[in-house]
Amino acid sequence: MPRLSPGSLRVFSTQVLVASGVPDDDAALVADSLVQADLWGHQSHGVLRLPWYVARLRSGAMASRTDPEVVSDAGPLVLLDGRDGIGQVLTERARTTAVERARTHGVGVVGVRNSNHFGTAMYWTRRAAHDGCVAVLTTNASPAMAPWGGREKRLGTNPWSIAAPGPDGRVVAVDIANTAVARGKIYLAKNRGEPIPDSWALTADGAPTTDPAEGVLGVILPMAGHKGYAIAFLMDVLSGALTGSAVGTGVHGPYEPAARSGAGHLFLALDPAAFGDRAGYEARVRQLIDEVKDVPLAQGVDEVFYPGEVEDRAEAANLAAGGVVLPEESVAGLRTLAAETGVAFPEAVG
Predict the structure, then answer these.
(1) pTM of the predicted model, to two decimals?
(2) What stretches of 237-308 show up as alpha helix (H) in DSSP?
(3) Would the pLDDT of 1 be above 80?
(4) Which helix (H) or strand (E) holds 321?
(5) Residue 232's closest CA among 153, 181, 178?
(6) How far is the C-alpha of 39 from the C-alpha of 123, rounded, in Å?
(7) Alpha carbon distance 201, 320 (integer Å)
(8) Cβ atoms of 220 and 141 closer than 8 Å
């Protein structure tokens, strides 16, 4: 497949969203979040999702103009009603507000109700970390996982991310779903025509499968068995129950073109300076990085990475190569959008 430059993909995605009624700045933000996921090597959350977003905008399930309402403001804690706006735009509002309050109070917490899918959680926590804050972001999602011991979907993957400032301008970050794999990776395998490991999903009848199409229709398994299920449950409490949004089977995802999402998020920002030892904090994070990088290696291992380093390496490699290579089916979906909106599809760079 051809390699596409990140700049051209951002322009294309922005123009497609603008053609769907999204304001320019909001469209550019969404486009950047999707392309950044592709650069990090997380194509399950990249421009693969653009056709799904557009379908929801067209149906009215997701509002093209995001206009949140402040439900409550208690100083360090703010609650927003997203009023079915775009998840990325609402999460950026949550991030900037949480960081602002953290600089004033030492901690900033922003809950968001009635939102939509926001893409890669790490995109937002990394931004807060570059602002100098330690950040935690949780969200709930449409049902994908059965409760431990069950075989019907009741809980979402309910991902979460933590990011923190590191030494020399670096960021340490993790972004994980509580399932064995993010649902988007099963869609990506389907687009690539590749089998999935039999530890990722069950069929609708509760049998292990290597067929991604069956995995999409079936149940995604939790990470770490009962532990992943319990974490997903509590992430739904933080993201949905606490914020006043939908929970469990009441949440609908970007894969559903006409269903109101009801997703909720919780964004927490902590200012290390408020703990009274910013320099010491930075030294201790540096120590952690040095210790994991210097560990004696297990057999067959060439290098140990600190959290977030793999994404930084992938981005650098993709930028050096001139862009990203997308699966054929993903490109086909984007070409369809180009034809429908009249937006020119980007030319390959190699």
Answers:
(1) 0.93
(2) 278-293
(3) no
(4) helix 309-321
(5) 178
(6) 11
(7) 35
(8) no
| Strand segments (E) across the chain | 3-4, 69-73, 77-81, 107-115, 134-139, 160-165, 171-176, 201-202, 219-220, 263-270, 324-325
| Residue 195: φ, ψ to 5° | -75, 160
Compute the distance between CA of residue 236 and CA of residue 245 in angstroms, rounded to an integer. 10
Answer yes or no: is pLDDT of 350 > 90. no
Question: What is the per-residue pLDDT across 31-86, written as a single tens digit (0 to 9) for each?
Answer: 999 999 999 999 989 999 999 999 999 999 999 999 999 999 999 999 999 999 99
Contacts within 8 Å (CB) and 24+ apart, 100-105: 101/75, 101/76, 101/77, 101/269, 102/76, 102/133, 102/269, 102/270, 102/271, 102/274, 103/271, 104/75, 104/76, 105/75, 105/76, 105/274
- Residue bearing the bigger pLDDT, 148 or 89: 89
Which H or E element spans position 56?
Answer: helix 50-59
| Residue 334 in this model has a pLDDT that exceeds 70 | yes
Our measurement of the distance from residue 138's CA atom to the centroid of its chain's CA atoms, rounded to an integer in Å, reads 10
Torsion region of 21: left, alpha or beta (phi above 0 gives left; psi -120 to 50 gives alpha): left
